[in-house]
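Supplementary Methods S3. Input chains for the assembly prediction are listed below.
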Amino acid sequence: MRSFRFPFARVSPLLALIPLVAAALLLSACGEGGGDAAGGADEALTVYSGRSQPLVDGLVERFEEQTDFDVEVRYGTDAQLLSVMQEEGQQSPADLYWANTTGALAQARQANLLAQMPDSLTQQAAAFQPQSGRWSPVTTRFRTLAYNSEAVDTTALPPSVLELPELSQFEGRIGWTPTYSSFQDFVTAMRATHGADSTRTWLNQMQELNPKSYSSNTPMIQALADGEIDLALTNHYYVLRLKHGGGEGEYEGEEEGEEEDEASEEEEAEEATRPGAPVEMYRFADGDVGNLALVTGASVMRQSDQPQQAQQFLQFLLSPEAQEFAAQQVNEYPVVEDAPVPEYMMPVDRALSMSPQLQFDQLQNLDATLELMREAGLM
Amino acid sequence: MAVGVAVPVVYLVLRALEADPATLADLVWRGQTLRLLGNTVLLTAGVLALTTAISLPMAWLMARTDLPGRRLFSLLGVLPLAVPGYVMAYALMGATGRSGMLATLAGIELPRLSGYAGALLALSFSTFPYLFLNLRAALRGLDPALEEQAQALGMSRGKVFWRVVLPQLRPAFLAGGLLIVLHVLGDFGVVSLMRYDTFSYALYVQYTTSFDRIYAAWLALMLLALTAAVLFAEARLLRGLLYHRAGSGGAARPARRLRLGNIGRWVACLPPTLVAGVAVGLPLAATGFWWLEGSYLAAATVGAGDVLTALADSAAAAAPAAGLAALLAVPVAYLSVRRPSPLTRAAERTAYFGYATPPLAMALALIFFTLRAVPGLYQTLALLVGAYALRFLAEAIGPVRAALYQAPPRLEEAARALGRGPVEAFFATVFPLLRRGLVVSVAFVFLSAMKELPLALLLSPTGFRPLAVSAWGYAEEALFAQAAPFALVIIAFSAAFVGLLLWQEGERKGR
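Predicted structure tokens for the full assembly:
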């Protein structure tokens, strides 16, 4: 008589994997859960980044090399991360929040999520510093109207972005990014400078021109270069990156030994460079909200269990090395003095003089902005 | 398992009800919601119409005429299933536009596809096989006697088609149409790339751009309600449809094929060739083109390492999900076959519910649930794996069920009679017979999960970037060259899925 064999003995290797995999699954679930609960000092520094990976990874690697810290970055949109931090509350693993927009930082400050930081840290970007002292600017950028120079005669363009809806000849030919955070900051600034009613009117009138909504700026600028649209409301560096690709110039040679990582970052930024593209930037009259200066900023989280290290990382972001990275790679402006910018960038003083004078902390209450945009049927 | 589906939905409802009524009224009952509903319905109806216009003539040509190369065309009618919707959308976008493939290679400058037209084309060409396969099978199975009688009674050919053939195709149309409608309602990749506002896309936009998640929760609920309404309507339409032959009928003979004539044969080849060209040729050409473009632009290439990492990430989620789904499928299928009861039927129903639930709504429900109830699970691989297993469980149940029908209960009874316990008897007799079915189940779920996008997008843990998310992310940024290698790998996996499907069909027929 044949003896009874346990059937798994004859099962194909693939099936035998199932219990193993299931076990591994359980272990991994427990492991990760446990990791969150532990909170030792050896734990990695956790950064929540509303900025995208290519703009952050290179900096994180350098910081890790210089300090021996472990840094873990969680990427998302500003809103997504802020919403998560609010849900996570005291248990949030976030040590530092690096946001793409002032609106998100102001919101975080209101929700009392941000720690007070020492003056030594906040005074470095004094020119851009918010009154609250709860967060520090890291880079500056400007809103702008990009246009296709083959299709648009600049004399037809108005001195103020508020008059943009009068350009009925561009019906269906204007691009914008309602869901993108910088655009929302710009609407918030319009609310702060011109009031909610004017802003509502502007949004509604713009809607009548049937603008094309893009989910992000890079494809919009590509469409502008391709002649699919004639005008685009965007941030200055998207135009510069299309034409100059970022990362050009003398920067590479200076940092010996770290070029490999750097090179891969540059590739990300260089991806779709088109030097001859017929895309230019139009500047509205000085002080117009269409030339708005905006900053990205970072802050140490209140519930962080390693605020010292988080401050150290923020300090690194403000160092000449990191500031130059932003200027060279992303074509954003430094917030500390004397960090060089590539030649093709307008001097920062000139750009700043064109922006309306605003306290960055004024760009808060994003909820009201979103409400206006929803009313106008933008999202 | 039912708990896995139901509890998150309860959390979704709780979360949605948190809003104070005044805000809610402003937020939910406004023009925008109506517009989203209109857009969603318009897209669904459009896709249904276009897929019908593609599938019905093609199915008729394959089943009822002497078209040359019928077998090849039939295969080409299935292959589009190897191109996920978001890859199709990517291909259409990469082929058009001033710097697109058609402009570069052929000098044909079409405006870059977007909006309704783009979403309609991408969804139709990636989903029409569901309808085509159903209609072709139905046309083949019809008893020709009915048509012959109608003709003998003096009806013209055209009238016979409208009055006799078409009505009999209704069940097949409903079955294929339901799959397509569920697909369109749940789709996120296509509408997001084409920037067409439907419930899914609006849900994603609200989730990523707004601090407040209540509107996202409401959109998810509305999407769920719409899906439920469709399922309900389909069940109602199907009720009372009886088209079987009177008596046992014996084996139906196949209908006589219409002779197309020498010129007609070649003319009739054109439409199916065109369809296959757009649905299969274009995605391959566009990804290939951009892949080559990418390797010319030295700076723009994505390294092989990036693709391998994405591949590993995808597999790390898909493999355990496949194992888990197969593991769950065994008891569900076993109980529903051997011990049918309302409870086991409900369990099986739940599996199909997981398949029909729009994935973004499912993801959002899981996010709310884990954040509130089990924060340790939030943003873990385990959650993504569990979500995949629930979503694709239905695919795992099918093959296991089929295998179970082949395992006679007597074997098990004999083992019990010889003194084995119920578990031991199961493993000694039934389980060995299930092995093949299980392998197929594992493979189906694995391949489906490899190309899945919306769940991966919302539930992936920190730093986790599977193939689908990479391809979609690059395509969304209009970085077509960077998206190409990921899209190609996805097509390869999907092709394996379709190959498996065809092989299984062949097996079934062979028996």
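Confidence is low (pLDDT under 50) at residues 1-41, 247-271 of chain A. The longest strand of chain A covers residues 136-148.
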